[in-house]
Write a structure and sequence with these properties.
By secondary structure, the protein is mostly helical. It folds into 2 domains: about 30-125, Cytochrome c-like domain (Cytochrome Bc1 Complex, Chain D, domain 2, Orthogonal Bundle); about 140-250, Cytochrome Bc1 Complex, Chain D, domain 2. About 40% of the residues lie in helices and about 0% in strands. The chain is built from 10 helices and 2 strands, in the order ααααααααααββ. The chain has helices spanning about 1-20, 30-35, 40, 80-90, 105-115, 120-125, 140-150, 155-160, 200-205, 225-235; strands at about 240, 245. The chain has a two-stranded antiparallel ribbon with strand order 1-2. α2 (about 30-35) packs across α5, α7 packs across α10 and α9 (about 200-205) crosses α10.
Length: about 260
């Protein structure tokens, strides 16, 4: 009996030793950043990497803690989940590709590096995510009401009356760093920054896009009006999207 117990103990110790030696080394977030991010965002995270000047849309300056895509209220830092989602999804229309070639552990290892560039993450905590209210269903009436909001709130001044990004203010817009910024073309289809689902777009209207002229409408239009606006801007696309999700392969289903 003692012999059997001893064999069991030895087997357990051998297994633990083998696991310790075969375990993957700790993921080095700084090395991952240096290899994949520093060329654009800079070694200091200031958006001044060696290729930054060649890019039309400039890389994000991490040192000021200002982020476009958030689930948190206007003025708040993003949550870790917000940052991870942006890293994974990328930023359509920019040189920021989806970093889904990195595994989840590698993407998580980037978080302390990116947040470490800004003192704001040391002094502040992200606020709770914005509550997404129950969606008002898509309908022709909702689209019509959304158009009224779009015109009344001056969205057309930047995005154009037909949503093509050709409003009269469009060619003179700048971000907080003085870089020229182009209004989104809603007719471009399934390429909304931060996601193309109805809920994603609702969040953009609610939180705004910090660092850009795109404001938060949380205090200026009602929850219902924000949903109407979602349905209107999605109605402007070329048919690549269905409401609530993207159509397969980016094309509308063929009529039978």
């Amino acid at each position: 009996m003692v012999f059997v117990f001893a064999l069991a103990m030895i087997a357990t110790l051998l297994a633990a030793t083998q696991a310790a030696y075969s375990a993957e080394p700790a993921v080095d977030g700084k090395e991952i950043y240096k290899m994949n991010c520093a060329s654009c965002h800079g070694e200091k995270g200031d958006g001044m990497g060696p290729v930054a000047n060649a890019l039309t849309i400039k890389p994000r300056d991490f040192t000021i803690g200002s982020y476009k895509i958030r689930s948190t209220p206007n003025g708040s830092l993003p949550s870790d989940e917000d940052l991870l989602r942006t890293i994974k999804m990328g930023m359509p229309g920019t040189s920021m590709i989806p970093w889904d070639i990195l595994d989840e552990g590698q993407r998580k290892a980037l978080l302390p590096v990116i947040k470490g560039f800004s003192k704001f993450f040391e002094d502040e905590k992200p606020e709770k995510a914005v509550k997404i209210s129950k969606e008002i269903p898509y309908s022709k009436e909702a689209v019509a009401k959304g158009k009224e909001v779009y015109m009344k709130k001056g969205c057309w001044e930047c995005h154009g009356e037909k949503g093509k990004g050709d409003g009269f203010k469009g060619d003179r817009l700048k971000d907080d760093w003085g870089n020229h910024i182009v209004p989104y073309d809603f007719t471009a289809g399934d390429s909304f920054k931060g996601g193309s689902s109805d809920k994603d777009i609702y969040l953009r209207f609610t939180t705004g896009m910090t660092g850009t002229p795109m404001p938060s409408y949380e205090d200026s239009i009602s929850v219902e009006q924000r949903w109407y606006l979602v349905h209107f801007v999605k109605s402007l696309t070329k048919g690549e999207m269905k409401h609530g999700k993207s159509a397969k392969h980016g094309k509308p289903e063929a009529k039978k």
